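Saturday, quiet lab. Running sequence design on the structure tokens for the scaffold JK sent over.
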């Protein structure tokens, strides 16, 4: 296909954004200015790739024309054929880069995230697996230089989590972690299994883009805020003060609780962050489809036959069922080395978005 019109369109839009960024008035709106800056960076990259692509096409045409005038067996003809082969590979790679730019990025990709992990089917073993997933994402975040902030948790008796909620802040957090939403299935011999039998359990993961105050209006009269004494881990100071905060959003009955901090005010801020992100997810889903359908597609019911990924410890295997990718590196994967699956998931998503464009 002829990509020149698209490349010229990228260049024109880049000039428009560049002009907008030169206006000091734009920076009175920090969110808008950040969005424009990100768009400019994306368009600049695409325009530069487009320029290299067009040059590769021109060079390719010149080499092919020269080859027609040169004796086929000459040394110069052989060198030209080698150059043509290299230019064809380069042009194909650059055309792919430009075409991927035609699929608009998810506006939420640059946002921080709220991650909610819940034990599913499998009793105490599913709660232990939820704790494994929490550690896995925490270590992945540390490797990428992201910051993790615990918000709330409900520990199980054996040291796992019935539920754990935490925030992750950094560059491209939602862009990389959004593919983790769904049912995660583990197959292994539990520590409590005396007969050495393999059990199958699940935990659900929901990754929500962190909402900003401008995304939606939450009226104070729609909130019921209660404080209570925290329980569980956190030390004597947390457990003996009325620092835990519970917020109920009256229009829907949605409840959010945060008890991680000693400060009641800090817990309130964290709880509002979670509430706002959950409400944003509902708002976005309602624009596309009914919220219930999207939520079920994202995490299902937690049953064993609903899964996006399987962690099979006896076989040292991790399988992502969405892209039918199986790797035999489970020990390193569960310790936070997730890019070997996240990168292919991103590539697959881009391929599907390109196909939907029907270029």
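Result came back. Writing it out in full:
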């Amino acid at each position: 296909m002829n990509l020149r019109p698209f490349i010229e369109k990228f260049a024109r839009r880049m000039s428009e954004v560049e002009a907008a960024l030169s206006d000091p008035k734009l920076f009175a709106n920090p969110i808008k200015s950040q969005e424009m800056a990100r768009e400019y960076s994306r368009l600049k990259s695409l325009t530069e790739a487009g320029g290299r692509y067009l040059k590769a096409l021109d060079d390719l045409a010149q080499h092919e024309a020269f080859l027609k005038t040169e004796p086929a067996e000459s040394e110069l003809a052989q060198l030209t054929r080698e150059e043509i082969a290299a230019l064809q590979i380069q042009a194909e790679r650059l055309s792919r880069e430009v075409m991927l730019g035609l699929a608009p990025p998810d506006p939420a990709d640059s946002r921080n995230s709220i991650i909610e992990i819940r034990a599913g089917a499998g009793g105490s073993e599913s709660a232990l697996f939820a704790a494994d997933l929490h550690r896995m994402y925490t270590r992945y975040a540390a490797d990428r230089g992201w910051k993790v902030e615990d918000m709330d948790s409900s520990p199980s008796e054996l040291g796992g989590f019935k539920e754990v909620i935490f925030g992750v802040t950094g560059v491209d957090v939602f862009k990389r972690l959004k593919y983790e939403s769904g049912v995660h299935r583990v197959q292994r011999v539990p520590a409590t299994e005396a007969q050495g039998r393999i059990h199958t359990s699940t935990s659900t993961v929901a990754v929500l883009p962190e909402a900003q105050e401008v995304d939606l209006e939450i009226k104070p009269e729609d909130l019921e805020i209660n404080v209570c004494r925290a329980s569980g881990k956190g030390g004597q100071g947390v457990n003996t003060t009325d620092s835990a905060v519970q917020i109920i959003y009256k229009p829907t009955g949605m409840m959010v609780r945060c008890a991680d901090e000693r400060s009641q005010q800090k817990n309130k801020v964290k709880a509002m962050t979670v509430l706002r992100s959950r409400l944003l997810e509902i708002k976005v889903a309602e624009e596309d489809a009914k919220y219930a359908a999207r939520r079920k597609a994202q995490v299902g019911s937690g049953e064993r036959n609903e899964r996006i990924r399987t962690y099979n410890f006896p076989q040292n295997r991790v399988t992502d069922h969405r892209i039918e990718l199986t790797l035999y590196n489970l020990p390193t994967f569960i310790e936070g080395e997730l890019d070997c699956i996240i990168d292919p998931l991103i590539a697959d998503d881009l391929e599907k978005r390109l196909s939907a464009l029907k270029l």
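Notes for JK: The mean pLDDT is 85. The chain is about 50% helix and 20% strand. Ask whether to fix the surface positions before the next round.
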